[in-house]
C-alpha cells in the first residue's frame, strides 16, 4: 500500500512534468470535485500546465467549484461541460464530441490534442429506483458500466496522444477489489435479472465485467493506456442527502456519518489518492519501469514507488483493481472463476450493447 508520504511526494512532482489535460466525468460534486480541488492545489503555482474538463449536470455546483479552483490555481484552464443524462449514450457522445472539438481547436500549450487522465465517477443513488433509459438500458448499470466504457471508446484517440511516460490513465471510481460470491455456472455478465436486482447484484455484475473488460482493453492498448478501477471507501458527498433517497435514509445518514467519521475517507485524502492514480505506479501494459531487471529484482518508478500489480497479479500489467489507498489485491482477481472464454464473453456482450445504441463516435 502506498504511504501518505509517497502519495504526497509523487504529487509534488507532477508540475515538473509535461502539461496535463484531465477530464473528470461527474466532476461537479462528490469525489469528482474533490479530485479537481487537489489538482488545483498541486498546480497552484505551476502556470499554464493544466487543463481540466469538468462534466456534470448541475451548473450552479459547477460555478461554485470553478470559482474555488480558479482562485487556487489561476494559471490552469478549467472548463465546465454541461451534461443532461450521462446514462444516455447519446449524451455521452455529445460530451465527447465537445471535448474533441475543444482539443482540436485549441490544444494546451506544450502538445497536441489529447487527454492524459480520464476520471469517471458518474452514478445514481443506489437507493433510488433505477428504471430503463430511453435507450433501453438500466440507468444504474449504464452509469456505472456501459456509459463509462462508451467514454473510453469515444476518447481513445485523444488518450493515445497523451504525453505521459507511463501512458494515459483511465480511472473508474466504484468498487475495485470488491468481489462478491459468484456461482461459476452463472457468471454475472450483463445486467442482473429483475428478481435479483439490487445494490449488491449491481455491484457484482459491474465489478466482474469491468475487471475483465479492463484487462482486454489494457492488452489491446498496451503501451498507451492504463485502466484502473478503484473502490474509494466510504466518502461523504451530496448523493447521500439527495431527494431521490428515502427520507428515513437522509435522516439516518446525518447521524451515521458522525458515528462513522473514524472509518470514512476524508474528501481531501480521497482526492489525493485519485490524483496519485495517474502516476507511474499504475503504467500502461509494457511501460512499467518496475519490470524485472533480469536478476529477479523489481525496480521502482521515478518517484521511488513500486509499480503496482495488475488484476492478473502481473507487475505493471495495465489493468488495476485497487482499494481506497491505491492498494491492489494480494491475489489474482476472480481467480477461481477464470475460464478461457470469460474475457471474450464480457467483451462481446459489452460491445453488442453499445453497438445496439446508434451513434458511437470513435
UniProtKB/TrEMBL annotation:
Keyword Oxidoreductase: yes
Protein name: Uncharacterized protein
GO molecular function: oxidoreductase activity
Entry keyword set: Oxidoreductase
Keyword Oxidoreductase: yes
Cross-referenced Gene3D superfamilies: NAD(P)-binding Rossmann-like Domain (3.40.50.720)
Family matches, as InterPro entries: NAD(P)-bd_dom_sf, Sec_Metab_Biosynth_Oxidored
Amino acid at each position: 500500500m502506498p504511504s501518505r508520504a509517497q502519495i504526497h511526494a509523487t504529487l509534488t512532482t507532477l508540475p515538473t512534468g509535461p502539461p496535463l489535460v484531465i477530464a473528470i466525468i461527474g466532476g461537479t460534486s462528490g469525489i469528482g470535485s474533490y479530485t479537481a480541488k487537489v489538482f488545483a492545489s498541486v498546480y497552484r503555482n505551476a502556470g499554464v500546465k493544466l487543463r481540466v474538463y469538468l462534466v456534470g449536470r448541475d451548473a450552479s455546483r459547477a460555478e461554485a467549484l470553478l470559482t474555488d479552483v480558479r482562485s487556487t490555481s489561476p494559471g490552469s484552464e478549467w472548463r465546465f461541460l454541461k451534461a443532461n443524462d450521462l446514462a444516455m449514450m447519446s449524451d455521452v457522445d455529445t460530451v465527447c464530441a465537445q471535448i474533441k472539438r475543444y482539443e482540436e481547436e485549441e490544444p494546451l500549450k506544450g502538445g497536441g490534442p489529447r487527454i492524459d487522465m480520464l476520471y469517471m465517477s458518474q452514478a445514481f443513488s443506489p437507493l433510488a429506483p433505477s428504471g430503463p433509459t430511453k435507450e433501453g438500458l438500466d440507468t444504474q448499470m449504464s452509469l456505472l458500466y456501459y456509459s463509462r466504457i462508451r467514454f473510453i471508446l469515444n476518447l481513445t484517440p485523444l488518450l493515445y496522444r497523451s504525453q505521459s511516460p507511463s501512458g494515459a490513465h483511465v480511472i473508474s471510481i466504484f468498487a475495485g477489489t470488491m468481489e462478491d460470491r459468484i456461482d461459476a455456472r452463472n457468471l454475472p455478465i450483463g445486467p442482473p435479472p429483475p428478481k435479483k436486482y439490487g445494490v449488491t447484484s449491481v455491484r457484482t455484475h459491474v465489478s466482474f465485467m469491468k475487471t475483465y473488460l479492463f484487462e482486454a482493453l489494457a492488452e489491446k492498448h498496451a503501451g498507451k493506456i492504463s485502466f484502473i478501477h478503484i473502490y474509494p471507501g466510504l466518502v461523504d458527498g451530496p448523493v447521500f442527502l439527495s431527494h431521490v433517497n428515502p427520507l428515513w435514509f437522509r435522516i439516518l445518514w446525518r447521524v451515521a456519518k458522525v458515528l462513522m467519521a473514524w472509518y470514512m475517507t476524508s474528501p481531501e485524502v480521497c482526492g489525493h489518492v485519485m490524483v496519485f492514480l495517474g502516476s507511474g505506479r499504475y503504467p500502461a501494459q509494457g511501460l512499467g519501469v518496475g519490470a524485472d531487471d533480469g536478476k529477479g529484482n523489481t525496480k521502482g518508478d521515478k518517484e521511488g514507488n513500486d509499480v503496482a500489480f495488475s488484476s492478473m497479479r502481473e507487475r505493471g500489467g495495465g489493468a488495476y483493481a485497487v482499494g481506497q489507498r491505491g492498494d491492489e489485491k494480494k491475489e489474482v482477481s476472480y481467480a477461481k472463476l477464470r475460464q478461457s472464454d470469460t474475457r471474450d464473453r464480457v467483451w462481446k456482450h459489452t460491445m453488442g450493447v453499445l453497438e445496439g445504441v446508434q451513434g458511437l463516435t470513435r
